[in-house]
Amino acid sequence: MNLIKSNESKNLVGCCGLYCGLCTKYQSRSPSRCLGCRIGEQHSWCSIWNCCVKKHKLDHCSECGELDECAIFLRRKVRDWIPVADNLHRILADGLENWLSEQMERQTALEELLDQCNDGRSMSFYCRACARMPVELIHQALKQAEEIFAHHQAEAADMKAKAGIIKDVIKDLALQANINLTH
Fold this sequence. Notes:
single chain, about 0% strand
């Protein structure tokens, strides 16, 4: 990974263990979009960011000795939302650079989904899928969808049809792998 890309990706390591590039608030095109945990002050609404950065002066929660007992992470909403604890433990076990390399691959796949199959209602689903599914399954879904698009001669302009196809493929693969993609 080149140095510039590596530095950019380090700025996208969310305090919570989510790679910001996989977050709907980062991928949004609205003026109020989040630029990532390390850039700007627009995320004061985030209880995880406030605890990690403001209170404990840490870069990410994997540096905190209270990670496994953290009241914020023990809340059901946070646990169900993103695989944060798993990511934070993987950063500790595998190292930040290895984890970042995988996250950048996930972000590339997500941005391909958003560019080619976003019907305006699918961003949350795509972000969730790319954050929770193994990278290999995401690539498998993209490949299967491309084959279906070609077989059905899906028009490039028919985003709704393409989104429906790719979402069905992703849901099927997630179900087979016992991965929950619901909120």
